[in-house]
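Would you be willing to look carefully at the protein I have copied below?

:::
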Amino acid sequence: MGIEINIKKGLDIPLSGKAKGKPETVKAELVGICPEDFPGYTWKCDVKPGDTVAKGSPLFHAKEAEGIKLISPASGTVEEIRRGERRRILAVTIRTGEEATLQIEADTLTDKLKLSGLWALMRQRPYDVVPAEGASPRDIFVQAFDSSPLAGNVIPTHIAEYLESGLEALKTLTKGNVYLAVRPGQGIRTKAAKVLDMTGPHPAGNASVQIAAVAPVNKGETIWTLDAGTAARIGMLVKKGYCDYRAEVAITGPAAEKPKKVVTEIGASLNVILKGELKEDASLRVISGNVLTGIKVNPTTDFLRFPYRQITIIEEGDKADEFMGWASMSPKKFSIKRTFPAFLRGLEKPFNFDARIKGGHRAMILSGELDKVFPFDIYPEYLIKAMKAGDYDRMEKLGIYEVAPEDFALPEFVDTSKQELQKLTRESLERLRKDS
């Protein structure tokens, strides 16, 4: 019997376009790894255009810890090093070729994780960054489900058998506990970890919520978090000496032609994955990830981004022409405040959301609305004010070390003032980390 945790505060956004059915395999012709997806380190490129790489070969190393690598998820030839302003590397792209997998040879598990790129797929609390080299976590939290809108499977079916081995390996990295968060009825049970049976709305799947409910992180302590898919890859690495870098991706959203699931390489180019999925003559927003925390991408030139599990397609809404606009009484409009009559038909039924924020930037309103979707023993509005003021002492007292940017995604969604709370949280955590 697991530890039962019921989350009462939160919100399940009823977005239409859920992916169904068994996943189909899509072979990526081009893959790209974007270093900005892995915060906490400065990444230095180890390859140049024309180099031949095997699956698992290093593409980047961390400037502050050369043993930590970002790897190629496919074998082939380095095609391009894309750069942005001030020659900042945006991505390294690989044109896939004949299958060739690199065996990861190292004496210790930590070295294997660093060389295989799996170290970079984990996160450290506080700060929500790639774990520091040499860090010893108090506990490790593994998420086996995702509660965000239209989320797909966290554990790719083709590597699910290695989850138990991965959890056993993680136990050797901490003197504390390994926790596995699941939804009741998922059918996942393990002897290698303490199981957390999570019920309640989103953000029940967020690591911060699980940590706060079991063993909150304090200043000076370190906790690692990762999804169960990464844990399964760790198990495969331990068992076979190499990894399967394919991901199971849910293509979702009200503007997707045929929501479905695909199995493809990590960092796969979107133009292949989304072939036949984009509506013609429509102004669309393609998001790598979910609508709350995902990254807006170009479906023609960009790639699947970390955490490599979901693509959401919605309409921009720039061509919307609604009678009476914001004053409309249409039952197709969603509102958690019962501003529109949609609650009469039930807010659980799917809505066709678009990308409009339905509001404007204004002074912060202390209304308590953020607290209704923020399941922490923290006053979110006062913490936001402290972050805006750059008051380090007050941020620490108000619980900044317990949260990550994703925890402010729902408050950002319901916020009347339309503040960029995730960006503010990331910047505040980064300042704290650099000054600590």
